[in-house]
Amino acid sequence: MGFDQYHEPPAELSPQTRTFARLCASLTEEAEAIGWYEQRLAVETDAEAKAIMRDAQGEEFKHFAMDLEFLLRRSPRWRQICEGVLFQDGDIVEHGEAAEAGSADGGDDDGGDDDGETGAADGALEIGSLKEAER
Amino acid sequence: MNHLLRRLAPISDAGWEWLDDEAGERLRGSLAARRLVDFSGPHGWRHSATDLGRVDAVASPAGDGVSVAQRRVLPLVELRSEFSVSLAELRDHDRGAADADLQELDVAAQRIAVAENLAVFHGWAQAGIAGIAEASPVAARPLGESAEEYPRSVARAVEALRAVGVDGPYGLALGPDEHTRVIETAEHGGYPLFDHLAKILAGPIVWAPGVRGAVVLSLRGGDFLFESGQDLAIGYSRHDADAVHLYLEESFSFRVATPEAAAPLSP
User: Fold this and answer.
1) pLDDT one-digit tens code per residue, A109-122
2) Beta strand B170-174 with B205-207: parallel, antiparallel or unpaired?
3) Taking CB atoms and an 8 Å cutoff, what residues of chain B touch A134?
4) Assembly ipTM
């Protein structure tokens, strides 16, 4: 089993950051699977096999959505930017730039912390559960 | 900028980082409930209530033929603990001073941690929160007048939980006075009382400011549910020529799903 979702020594990361990293890795895997099924569906000629793959791809859509929602609940700034981009009509890039500039931590020019991680951009002290620390 | 209005404060980025680090450090040691109960969230400042999955019957506005039920929810409570930091101290920290004074932050952090512990362990009737000790159907037995009596009391509490099918590991929340006694005491033969209790519990012993006496509870999960809206954060209130006035804030609800999964011990 690999632990390559961590780029820093896991022992130095909080339980919250480790969970966040695991779900980021899961999100990536779901997106990859969606892309694989899309390619398989494009070349498959057997209707029954295509139906199964379409069903399987639907599962990946669901997993991706659940992973994303979990991560957005734990990263208020990420959520705020997504709210400005997702499910909006019009120019995606314009929405993205506007959402980033209007997010809790501001855009590139406000001197704020622009790392887009679960950091204290929203002011949270990131204490969360301490139960794991007792185990 | 969110409702904490942090960017309106006359505090440098380094100053905010310092305050956040210091606050987190002070709070982590005192937030006993979070070491022992399930934590969900944070779900954000806009999260206002916890779904309870239950309904109350309501009289139908249309008379007979239409039945009406209203969902029952547990509203989150907002806790806020105010403190001030001297602008001179903030400037000194920016210059590299390592001994800047954050005494008011100490007090504010302790106040809000105690309030959270109190709500979880002893309840908060006005906010609709039933505490772990008060909700338990197990009658509170005395912990004991001297620390030497504690192992027997804790073992009995663990047995009481096992007897009703509540598995471990078990945790022990100890009020500050009781915790001090445990730390200071060695039993016959010099065996530390702390280690003896830990063996009985197979789980942690937690210093719990705000707890009266002690509470033994199962850590198996699913019994005690803390739901965080906004997790603890520092917000900005106002400033004057001498100081910046800030506050620690959080929102949460707490509910006991399995009252019999805890046994209180009175002081």
Assistant:
1) 332 333 333 334 46
2) parallel
3) 35-36, 171, 203-204, 206, 219
4) 0.83
